[in-house]
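Internal ticket #5521
Category: modeling
Description: The requester needs a full-assembly model to guide mutagenesis choices. All entity lines are attached below as received. Residue total reported by intake: 230.
Assigned to: D.W.
Attached entities:
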Amino acid sequence: AQSVTQLDSQVPVFEEAPVELRCNYSSSVSVYLFWYVQYPNQGLQLLLKYLSGSTLVKGINGFEAEFNKSQTSFHLRKPSVHISDTAEYFCAVSDRNNFNKFYFGSGTKLNVKP
Amino acid sequence: DAGITQSPRHKVTETGTPVTLRCHQTENHRYMYWYRQDPGHGLRLIHYSYGVKDTDKGEVSDGYSVSRSKTEDFLLTLESATSSQTSVYFCAISEFSGSPTSYEQYFGPGTRLTVT
């Protein structure tokens, strides 16, 4: 089974500052990678995904992530955050041999301060 | 938005009582999933289904059972609820036609279950 590590449970940041949310996964096999966002009292919404091709993936709301196979990482970045980005962010992985199972990290709460 | 509804959205029940949560989809997706979300644990897979009457266990399946008699409905049952099953439960759906381009999981709005 996969394991997904999101080292930072909470990340405070000021508005308009850059942010990076870290995600590392365990598997050495080929993987699909995802970032989801959850706003308070809502379900999860897909931000972006890496399935194949370019290792730099752009998503909604100005977010991007880079797949690094050698470091088994998929860190999420945004160059300038807004108050509305305050939410919890989840990294998820599925491996290509068992694609119908997703494994989620424990989440990172992003708190954007004015 | 993917057509996924969950019912009920909130439920309070007593220890030892049976509880059934329903997930309904209008997307005709083959795969359906039940997760629970707890602080510090992210989402953990309880059970999933890969077709009508085809289900399999996830990582936290003890105390839960599922059924899928129609493509659109996936039921999660707690046979005898315990306080440790107090959680937010999410249903998700996905489809994989062989081309990964559109592959992802779509989530329902969640059910908040409290077992007293």
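Resolution: model delivered.
Comment from assignee: Chain B has a mean pLDDT of 92.
Ticket closed.
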